[in-house]
Amino acid sequence: MTPLRVLSDTCQKVVGGGASGQMQEWRLLLEKAESSPEIVNLTQGYPDFAGSATARREAAEAIAKDGPNKLNQYSPLVGLSSLMESLSKFYKRVWNMDVDAKREILVTTSGTEAISIALQALVSPGEEVVVFEPCFPWYLPVSRLAGGEVKLCKLSMEDEYAIDAGKLEASFDPKKTKVIIVNSPHNPTGRVLSESDIETVHRFASTSEAGCVIFSDEAYEGQCWAKEGHVKIKVLVDKLNEKTGSKVRVVTMGTASKLCSLTGWRVGWLLGDEDIISGCKALHGYSTYCAPSPLQHGIAKALDEFTDQSFDGTRDMMESNARKVVDALRGQGFNTYNPEGGYFVVADGSPLGFSSNMELCQVLIDECKVAVAPMNMFYGTPAPELTPSERGLVRIAICKTEPVIQEAIARIRKL
Questions:
Q1: Per-residue confidence at 27, pLDDT binned at 50, 70, 90?
Q2: In 10 A of CB 102, how many CB atoms?
Q3: Which spans in 306-372 are helix H?
Q4: Closest alpha carbon to 119 in 181, 174, 172, 168
Q5: What are phi and psi of 280, to 5 degrees?
Q6: Cβ neighbours of residue 286 under 8 Å, at least 6 residues apart?
Q7: How far is CA 196 from its chain centroid?
Q8: Pick from 27, 133, 373, 401: most CB atoms within 10 A?
Q9: Separation of alpha carbons 105 and 122, rounded Å
Q10: DSSP 8-state assignment for residue 224
Q11: For residues 63 and 294, what is the distance between their CA atoms, to the nearest angstrom?
């Protein structure tokens, strides 16, 4: 008798695939990294410092207030009006970007939910989603859950993780490609997209017969130390549209997890044209309905205080940490990419003789008591099909205080 199958085809497809089937390795490594206080854990991108004092204070006061208090109840589905207004003013003040608070903003329960509902709103079954790899692992299963077919486009350290027009051409189908996902600053590499990169993406999107939309993940917009600072992809695309007569559209994701260093609060947002955001609002209503109201309130107050791209000093902290980690790893013989933003440094251990990144991760955690993440999970390409240098890549979180970074460096130098 054939046993009854509990999980749906859709669920099994996601559970079985993950990010190239590497999620089990990732879970086991995380468990080991958390198993002892002696281990310096640089696997995940969460800060080890308190996060925005303003956001925490304002949210705490709202939660503790006695009597009738709407901030401890549901917010409107679309988000607190105060947060939406704060977001609109924030993007205008810091990046001179015009966003209508009522029509072009949706507050979501994390940036992760924002990615999910945006792709569900945009992608129909059989349409294609171009994903540059390595990538944030959630892009792949979320695209498939939306019914999309993922088309991978490889970025390589040898090319400074720049977008290659020839590779993009091979992944792009003008009749089927509905979304191209870009991420700047990039997780995991720290690459900041250049104007040339965006011009390349725009050129292909503008030839689409399927109404291709650029989905721009800008979670790390507050941690960008490139010479020109973080540049909003939407602003660049609008200029290219004006120059070329195209009508390419952009949906932008942002998150308080990184802007305010509060990854546990799960407050994110989407910015885009009214018709797209309206669709996202409907799907959000049937997903989580609303982000936590007092936390939205705290984030609004924190955003009101940001006047430039320093963001409570986190940009300078990440740049300093990145420089120290890159210098130390290169001194040890690692091939290391020099990031211009984000929470991470990517390094290749193959020059040291390691046959795989899992081998390197195990040696680091066992001998040096430092935990880092294998990069296999950031590729959609199966590990056996990666190049030797790609199989040697690890990701190191730098969103930690200086003493933690210095201790990790001292331990790695004993490798």
A1: confident
A2: 12
A3: 314-331, 357-363
A4: 181
A5: -65, -35
A6: none
A7: 21
A8: 373
A9: 16
A10: B
A11: 6
Half-sphere exposure of 237 (CA within 13 A, CB side): 25
pLDDT tens-digit series, residues 33-74: 888 899 999 999 999 999 999 999 999 999 999 999 999 999
C-alpha 395/C-alpha 373 separation (Å) is 5
φ and ψ at residue 335, rounded to 5 degrees:
-90, 115
Tens digits of residue pLDDT in 86-138: 999 999 999 999 999 999 999 999 999 999 999 999 999 999 999 999 999 99
Tokens read off for 11? 């669920």
Number of neighbours of residue 245 by Cβ within 10 angstroms = 7
Q: Which residues have C-beta within 8 Å of that of residue 373, sequence separation ≥ 6?
A: 26, 29, 42, 43, 44, 188, 361, 394, 395, 396, 397
Q: Compute how many other C-beta atoms are within 10 angstroms of the C-beta atom of residue 412.
A: 22
Residue 246 φ then ψ, to 5°: -85, 170
Among the listed residues 120, 125, 166, 181, the one whose alpha carbon sits nearest the alpha carbon of residue 149: 125
Q: Which amino acid is at 147?
A: G
CA pair distance 322, 192, nearest whole angstrom: 14
Task: Report residue 57 as tokens.
Answer: 């204070």
User: 151 pairs with which residues across the strands?
Assistant: 130
